[in-house]
Amino acid sequence: MKxxxxxxxxxxxxxxxxxxxHHACPSRGGVIRHDRSASAYQELGSKCAFRCxxxxxxxxxxxxxxxASCVLIAPQWVLTAAHVVKGNxxxxxxxxQFIFDGQSxxxxxxxxxxxxxxxxxxxxxxxxxxxxxxxxALVKLTKPVRNVRPAVRYRDxxxxxxxxxxxxxxxxxxxxxxxxxxxxxxxxxxxxxxxxAGGAFGDLLxxxxxxxxxxxxxxxSESSRLGDPTPLELEIGCSPGDSGGAWFIRDDExxxxxxxVAVTSGWIPQDGDPxxxxxxxxxxxxxxxxxxxxxxxxxxxxxIGMPSDESTP
Length: 313
Fold this sequence. Notes:
Blueprint: E1 9-11, E2 31-32, H1 38-45, E3 53-59, E4 65-74, E5 77-80, H2 82-86, E6 97-100, E7 103-112, H3 123-132, E8 137-141, E9 163-168, E10 173-174, E11 178-179, E12 188-193, E13 196-201, E14 204-214, E15 246-250, E16 258-268, E17 287-292, H4 293-304
Parallel strand pairs: 1-7, 2-10
Antiparallel strand pairs: 3-4, 4-5, 5-8, 6-7, 7-8, 9-12, 9-15, 10-11, 13-14, 14-17, 15-16, 16-17
């Protein structure tokens, strides 16, 4: 079996799930309002428009099962968070699975953004990779996905203030308790308002290539640090397993209703302190971070435009 080695893991350039939760701020995606039914979030996540969001079964070095998410952007190309594949690069390349509409596909190549920091050690480094706005990887599949329409990427830069729909395979939880243990991974969709692109959080500077949302509480407006503190009907927060999942906005200007605006990466601590446990529980007030597609389209276009027989550097 071929290991995901340097020729296949192209370093062209942060928060995954249980598999790497000890070294980085893992992404948060399936935590919902405590006063709403989970079934509404499940129904939203299962809509036909979001079939392009796939599931990535993974296993840790100790053989424990875990998950991440991904999104199909062309028949044979998938986007996910770079830390998902980099955190599991001990796995054989052919062992990676990408499940769309019940069908399993495998990786032929994995290409990581050139500015992504290869070193994994420490919570601080994980947060720095998210803040840098380059926690993104492209995966070329061994064969095309024929029965799922790929996501259309957003190419404008007017995301701020828009309501997005986030879809992923994160673990369940709610805004009061945070994400539940033991982990129960579940496909869910939910809404949030895109509050900002980058900014300063304590001493942490976040790139404007990072879109930010906060998990607004229906009973405590003080927990909200960004934008309007009023929660949406299906306000959603973050949970392990949603790394690599998708954020969509409605944009009907060219006839395509839903467009991909971000890929879930992790969270940004309100006070910039990655060691403060209140910053990474998935509870109300958590700030979610997504890699901004409009800032990364040029790199994506360059990679997927490569001739299929081009050798990997």
